[in-house]
Design a protein that fits this description.
This protein has a single domain, classed as B-lactam Antibiotic, Isopenicillin N Synthase, Chain (Jelly Rolls), CATH 2.60.120. Helix content is about 30%, strand content about 20%. It is built from nine helices and 13 strands. It has an eight-stranded mixed sheet. It has a five-stranded mixed sheet with strand order 1-10-9-12-7, with no helix packed on it. The longest helix has 25 residues. Keywords: Iron, Metal-binding, Oxidoreductase.
Amino acid sequence: MGTTNTTKPNLDSTFNERKAFDETKAGVKGLVDGGVEKIPSLFHHQPDKYEIAYNTSHVIPVIDLKDIDNKDPSIHQGIVGKIKEACETWGFFQVVNHGIPLSVLEEMKDGVKRFHEMDTDAKKEYFYTKDRNKSFIYKSNFDLYSSPALNWRDTCACYLAPDTPKPQDFPVVCRDITLEYGKHVMNLGTMLFEFLSEALGLKPNHLKDMGCTEGLIAVCHYYPSCPEPELTMGTTKHSDHSFLTVLLQDHIGGLQVLYEDKWIDITPATGALIVNIGDLLQLITNDKFKSVEHRVVANQVGPRISVACFFSTGLRPSSKLYGPMKELLSEKNPSKYRETTVADYAAYFKAKGLDGTSALTHYKI
């Protein structure tokens, strides 16, 4: 299965082709609607060096949150222990009985689908803009002109925090559910950061007090069916630039996690949400928690819908510096990263694009 090369091609040769695709403002869905049978070469990816682990016994941890209100401290510590182990080994886990109604999850996926299947002219109002103050944007590949190869997907993205979203900035077809879902995810994330703080041996509010729950960005992907999935990727190998990511995916699947140099499928489970550590949390925990690389394979079945909620203020202006937490450092565990702001990290991640390498290496001491 393909994924990107680690070396960037001579983009001069493909610039005009990419520009022409960009200017349609119709995205990958526009190609599919046009009846494309062979995908354009700008979507062709180089073969990946890692094996795919078929029929593997490895399954990412599933953590049941139904007893979180139980006063028995042993139950609470049991949940903290499971989260700690998952974050140190996998960097990924699934949560069930997380408190977000199934009806909300289903309506959120439906809302994303409704937006992406709007008339192209109607969607163009939200097309990619350099205005960082816009709450809702639509685009295809954010790294269109810098990536070695494009991904077979379209995306809408919106800021849900720290600024209170203006409902009028959101398309009517997904406005109410997006704002409602964002509130649910913020509540879940705030609780998860308490567990993560305790898993680090710190007070429950530690990560929240550092500002880890300050920002929330919803990135809603639409992966159309692909006529030649073996030649391209839905999303290239990458780790997330956030502190934490909460992912909702539909029944189609395609998400894979790199574990022990093998690609492991994350099988969709009804009602479950996937949680993964982001780069910024690996940085401030000085590698105790792992921000693990993952990808999405292209598929002849589609469209696939996913909603990734990133706990990050993204490109919004920031001055607060984040580095490895002093509480976790010692002579035997010195700082491994230099400090950065969230905005600078996000800007570096965006400029680098999904080129198959981790943005974290740029900040290593």
